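Structure in, sequence out. Go:
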């Protein structure tokens, strides 16, 4: 080796040493990413100090980094609200990621424990964000629970764990004592759970003990027991647990607005003050190993106050893989757009919109379907040109590039054709410990629901399209539900007596607001394929489908259980106004009840059953 070669080699070695010396953590996985350990800022786990100021300092100092990882050491971190905001009833946001890129928050198995009115995480106009390896919970949740020990015609006795749910009887009313004052009982929900199985009590829904309980005089019996002096609507077994709410839709847990490429991985959420994860107008959200479950170590039956997850007006793909839900105050997930009612055509290019409560709007360049509510068929899309506010009104003006004459009229509803995400739900577990249904979806994009376990209190899958109550759009066009196990679903929320507040019409419920008028009415939904699933069911009602063209129910296995008593319609498949239906190669256990199909607003010839006819067809007029 000559002197020139030696010099070159030494230079390379020194350069390498210098590079790795400056970035000791540089690897293929985090090269170029700035790693910030919260411990380097003095934040240690288990101290009970407020983590909020240090976390805000880290975000302020590194908000312009091109790539950032915030790393926690294992252990407990407490987050306390701003006192003035708490006193004013306004939530405090813990981690606010606004217009940030390439951020990873790695909890390394740590616990984030929140106090008071708090939003754990907010993403606004951010991109490529990962949250992983942490647990979210509250020191004093905004639910409380009690165990019913006796129910008579004149009173209810309950026992309360005072260490977990401190309470007092004030002015003949039961109140709970939170960290920041009195927590009153919301006169809603009050769902009942079996004390042994931890599941919602069979054939109960909201307010199962009756509303008189909320007005009843309460007396303190001593020994952590209270008595409600009322006549309960039912007499639950001793040991049944009742869950009270201290608020409704207060503030979400992880909020995602106008963001892209968000990944939530190996995160457990035990409690939030509304939805666990909420996404609005965001693109590509993946939840891998996200568990939104009751904290059983604390003896709780509840997790989130509202939906486990909820997505409105998103794009790209909403993906779940390996997730579990229990104890949430509403559905596992709800993925949809929003209909916008038209009240007036103002000029050649402008209409007046009366928005619903969660209107996701129309931005310039977005495509818009106009629908006549009499037919609910999508028109050729128009192009939004912008909006204008109307002074003194929640209504707004929507402008179009094209003329609207003959295409939009007062009374029509509009749907944003540009906000239609795909949905993939795989390898998930949805249990009977959460109120409501499991999967709600209305999007025309691809939907795949496969390899999941459902044990839902209400319908396991609900596909609607609502023009009456919530205005959640829109018609589906490519849904596959396959290779799932549905076990003893639909034990609560009887829609025959609870409509419109019931929890579906069967294990799988396709029930848009639109109702066909006769055998010729065009269908609202299209191309729904239900195949290779196993239904282990105690009742008749497996599928209810209204207004679907291209419905397939094939190669499914139906096995009877006797876990609960049958209570719903004596029909396995109820089809209303469906077109081009294919039913074949299904296997039923010898004792499975019914073996029948009830049809309405359609001809029997719309149904093709290749080979042996597994199900006998009855028209509605022949109901037994």
């Amino acid at each position: 080796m000559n002197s020139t070669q030696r010099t070159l080699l030494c230079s390379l070695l020194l350069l390498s040493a210098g590079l790795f010396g400056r970035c000791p953590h540089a690897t293929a996985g985090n090269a170029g990413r700035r790693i910030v350990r919260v411990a380097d800022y003095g934040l240690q786990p288990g101290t009970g100090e407020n983590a909020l100021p240090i976390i805000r300092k880290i975000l302020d100092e590194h908000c312009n980094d091109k790539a950032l990882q915030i790393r926690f050491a294992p252990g407990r971190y407490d987050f306390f609200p701003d006192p003035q905001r708490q006193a004013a009833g306004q939530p405090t946001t813990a981690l606010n990621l606004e217009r940030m890129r390439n951020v990873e928050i790695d909890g390394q198995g740590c616990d984030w424990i929140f106090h008071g009115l708090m939003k754990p995480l907010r993403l606004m106009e951010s991109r490529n964000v990962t949250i992983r390896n942490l647990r979210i919970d509250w020191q004093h949740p905004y639910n409380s629970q009690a165990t019913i020990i006796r129910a008579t015609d004149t009173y209810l006795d309950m026992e309360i764990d005072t260490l977990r749910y401190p309470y007092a009887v004030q002015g003949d009313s039961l109140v709970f004592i939170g960290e920041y004052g009195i927590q009153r009982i919301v006169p809603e929900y009050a769902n009942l759970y079996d004390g042994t199985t931890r599941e919602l009590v069979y054939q109960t829904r909201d307010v199962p003990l009756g509303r008189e309980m909320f007005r009843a005089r309460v007396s303190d019996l001593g020994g952590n027991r209270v008595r409600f002096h009322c006549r309960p609507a039912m007499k639950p077994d001793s040991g049944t647990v009742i869950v009270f709410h201290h608020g409704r839709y207060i503030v979400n847990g992880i909020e995602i607005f106008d963001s892209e490429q968000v990944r939530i991985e190996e995160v457990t959420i035990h409690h939030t003050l509304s939805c666990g994860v909420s996404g609005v107008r965001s693109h590509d959200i993946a939840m891998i190993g996200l568990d939104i479950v009751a904290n059983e170590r604390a003896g709780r039956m509840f997790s989130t106050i509202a939906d486990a997850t909820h997505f409105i007006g998103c794009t790209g793909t909403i993906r779940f893989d390996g997730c579990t839900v229990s104890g949430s105050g509403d559905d596992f997930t709800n993925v949809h757009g929003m209909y916008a009612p038209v009240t007036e055509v103002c000029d050649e290019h402008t209409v007046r919109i009366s928005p619903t409560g969660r209107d996701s709007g129309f931005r310039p360049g977005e495509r818009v379907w106009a629908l006549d509510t009499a037919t609910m068929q999508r028109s050729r899309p128009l192009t939004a040109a912008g909006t204008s506010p109307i002074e003194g009104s929640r209504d707004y003006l929507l402008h179009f590039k094209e003329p609207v004459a003959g295409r939009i009229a007062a009374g029509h509803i509009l749907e944003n054709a540009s906000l239609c995400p795909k949905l993939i739900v795989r390898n998930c577990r949805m249990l009977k410990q959460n109120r409501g249904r499991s999967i709600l979806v209305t999007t025309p994009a691809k939907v795949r629901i496969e390899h999941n376990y459902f044990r839902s209190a209400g319908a396991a899958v609900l596909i609607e399209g609502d023009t009456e109550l919530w205005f959640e759009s829109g018609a589906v066009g490519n849904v596959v539900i396959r290779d799932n196990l549905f076990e003893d679903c639909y034990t609560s929320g009887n829609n025959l007596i609870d409509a419109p507040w019931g929890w579906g019409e069967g294990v799988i419920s396709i029930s848009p607001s639109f109702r066909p008028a006769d055998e010729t009415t065009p269908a609202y939904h299209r191309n729904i394929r239900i195949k290779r699933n196993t239904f282990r069911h105690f009742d008749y009602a497996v599928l209810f489908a209204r207004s679907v063209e291209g419905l397939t129910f094939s190669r499914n296995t139906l096995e009877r259980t006797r876990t609960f008593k049958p209570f719903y319609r004596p029909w396995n498949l109820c089809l209303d106004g469906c077109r081009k239906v294919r039913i074949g190669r299904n296997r039923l256990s010898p004792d499975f009840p019914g073996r029948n199909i009830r049809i309405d607003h359609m001809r029997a010839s719309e149904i093709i059953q290749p080979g042996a006819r597994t199900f006998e067809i009855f028209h509605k007029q022949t109901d037994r």
